[in-house]
Description:
Elements: H1 4-26, H2 38-66, E1 72-79, H3 86-93, E2 100-106, E3 121-123, H4 135-150, E4 154-161, E5 165-166, H5 170-177, E6 186-189, H6 197-201, E7 226-228, H7 229-237, H8 242-245, H9 262-270, E8 275-277, E9 281-283, H10 303-310, E10 320-322, H11 329-334, H12 336-340
Helix pairs in contact: 1-2, 2-4, 4-7
Amino acid sequence: MLSSSTLVYSLSLFLSLSLLSFLFFLSPSRHHVDILSPADELDDLSLFHRASVSANNNNNRRLISLSQTPPKIAFLFLTNSDLTFLPLWERFFKGHQHLYNAYIHADPSSPISPISSSINAKLIPAKKTARASPSLISAERRLIARAILDDPNNLYFALVSQHCVPLHSFPYIHNHLFSSDHPQRSFVEILSDEPFLPRRYAARGVNAMMPEIPYRDFRVGSQFFVMAKRHALVVIRERKLWRKFRLPCVVDEGSCYPEEHYFPTLLSLEDPRGCSNFTLTRVDWTGSVGGHPHTYGADEVSPRLIRALRRSNSSLDYFFARKFSPESLQGLMEIADDVIFRD
């Protein structure tokens, strides 16, 4: 016979799937392509539940384990093309295999080159993603859940893309994250006063976010974060806000960037004091085109650029930067040891 907890969980999954199907067919925007199928969402719910249960079961075991092995950073690579900067990341990770894990979520329609075993990377089962779509939120939650399941010593989760590069050495980043100055604090950008906030809030419809998310609670921020485990667990356990953020944008698709809204809004509501309100990934939006930031070319790479990108208005330097063109890799490799990884 099924245990009561298993029966309750199975019933919850069934009701969740039924609700997703109901919302999909009754939504006035169903002519929009929704690549988040009910079957995929059910699969994700199961994954998130397993990760949550695993975290609870491993809590005491982790405390014992940490006395023997140090805390780790889980690097979450969200990609849709080859990892152009893999050689630079290999050099960044070299010699620190006991302090990190790497997880790669690649769109299944995009070919990914074989990943070097030297970066200790795991390819996770991925689903199709699309820009300006809640599928990116799902992919990021999926990466977090897989990392939680894989290693209980993953205590920070750093989301990066195939266009991100490190600006410091691995020891610099690990030491700063786990120093006593930043005890389990998340570095998630949370903004409430941006001029485009009203348009982004109304992108799904004037009252589409109500009543769960009134305008006063809506926040925006960078897609890229470094998140503490306690907040990562909040993210994979959350259900209520997700029902709103998964809705397609039908009023203003040009203002629809769900992955830049969901995480800042959720963590602002759950634990605003536990978040830094700033990101550790530097992006230059000057002269952006089509929602894409400035892309650094090969002719821009220099020691001076790296030092300029590190500087921030917070107590920490930026750890990572984007976007870099594939042609810039050679120049970055040439200054890696003497500049990038020399703090």
